[in-house]
Design brief:
Elements: E1 47-48, E2 52-59, H1 66-84, E3 95-102, E4 107-111, E5 115-119, E6 137-138, H2 144-155, H3 167-174, H4 177-180, E7 193-199, H5 232-242, E8 248-254, E9 259-261, E10 264-266, H6 270-278, E11 283-287, H7 294-309, E12 311-312
Parallel strand pairs: 2-3, 2-7, 7-8, 8-11
Antiparallel strand pairs: 1-12, 3-6, 4-5, 9-10
Amino acid sequence: MRARLLGFGIAALLAACGPNAVGDGDGDGDGDGDGDGDGDGDGDGDNGPCDKMDLLFVIDDSGSMGEEQGNLATNFPAFVDVIHNTTNSAGEMLDYRIAVTTTGITQTEVIPILGPITTNGDDGRFRAMEGQSRPWLERADGTPAQLGTIFGDTARVGTGGPGTEMPFRAIELAFGDRVLDGSNANFMRDESLLGIVVLTDEDDCSVPTDEPIDILANPNLCASSNPEIHTVADAALNLDTVAGQGQWSTAVIAGPTSCMSSFGDAVEATRLKDFVTTAGTNGSFSSICEGDLTVALAEALSTFEAACEDFPQIE
């Protein structure tokens, strides 16, 4: 059986199938069809279930995101309860870590009449977790209910962040400069699946921000034709480098098209959809316009569980 998902939301109980168990090697239809259970015919096996997940939530903290953050926070206790009680196909409980950062990168925008205004962002820095000496949660830090409450409170990142969302750059900084300066050091572990959840009602617009951004003078700032914008390929390559190929997974919750919901408007997240495509089966995309993030969170966890079950063995 696949690792099970329990319930999300207040009234709903969603059951989903998780990763396939490793074949038992008898070739009778309950293995993988080659009689040795490993898929390569030599009995060695190149993949197997991981037992560690390092999860980073990258949450949009711009002015339009208050309701989405509240909905996300409401569902986090159930999310933590599920992952806390999930086992992989080898029967091992998941050794998980959970951190939160935002899409906000410190930037100066030129505002008509007002002139340049600088808004500080997290720049990939993990948000402090209440009562913790480090900026992430681990299984041993409390009961699922306690961890879910802390996680939910941390997810309310506010709406005072920069108006240009840069999740790709936030991820790059989180596992680059913020590791080097000690802010996020020691979060990511060897032989662990790195899972990235991005929640935003905009598309990625990761550009260098050393110079002030004049939004009105640069209407195509976020277009892929902008030679300075971080490419989708670069974003994927960065994760291949810091985590390893096949050792990261992503779940994006954004606009599949320009859409509206009880949260408000969302634009089509073209670059983020392309990013999910680069992840192949290790990626999933859910709509932020559903009005309830219950199903999106369930899909995210299901994606991470499946990626964990097909984890490449580390030499």
